[in-house]
Design brief:
The protein is α+β, with helices and mostly antiparallel strands. Helices cover 58% and strands 16% of the residues.
């Protein structure tokens, strides 16, 4: 490849991955065109992108952009997945597709300047999302307040219950017949 073409490809890679902090490296060997397009379209709807890269160019550009830890997985045919709200959603989507299409092989990844092994990417895929974790924290924070409100309302509920039972018991105790219902 000429220096000019290499520079153009490097600039294009640099532009595509500028600002990206989370990537998953995978192999798409053996995937046919229909499966590849179906997967790419489904991922694109979730703002996740997939790009096949030339390893030597990607290594050079990734080192410049702070994605250096991912370069250790750039051996053989490689594709890079990036995008989505967080690394957890990215890992979930890629792992789901790797389960559906057995020819996809997850090699590893990187997040925040730290390399992730294949097993760590799969472990991220089973973690709850950021929204789920926030919901759990809010639920835990509201738990004591709910208990306080329940305890504060409990005496009033007891008194109301005792008054109802007393009101229902009085007509039977006085021997008075209940008034007939008017039609």
């Amino acid at each position: 490849m000429s220096k000019q073409v290499t520079k153009l490809l490097s600039d294009d890679l640099r532009q595509s991955f500028d600002g990206v902090r989370d990537v998953v490296v995978l192999s798409l060997m053996g995937l046919d065109g229909i499966q590849n397009n179906t997967m790419r379209l489904a991922l694109r709807q979730k703002n996740i992108y997939l790009r096949v890269v030339k390893n030597s160019l990607a290594k050079r550009v990734f080192d410049e952009l702070g994605l250096g830890p991912a370069t250790q997985f750039l051996e053989g045919p490689s594709a890079i997945a990036w995008g989505g709200p967080t690394i957890v959603e990215l890992a979930k989507e890629i792992t789901d597709w790797a389960g559906k299409l057995t020819k996809i092989e997850i090699k590893g990844g990187a997040t925040g300047g730290v390399a992730l092994s294949r097993e760590q990417v799969r472990a991220l895929a089973v973690m709850p999302s950021r929204e789920e974790l926030i919901g759990r924290v809010v639920n835990l924070a509201l738990g004591p307040a709910r208990r306080v409100v329940t305890l504060a309302c409990a005496p009033a509920a007891r008194i109301v219950g005792q008054l109802r039972s007393k009101a229902e018991a009085e007509p039977a105790a006085t021997g008075a017949a209940p008034e007939p219902a008017q039609a």
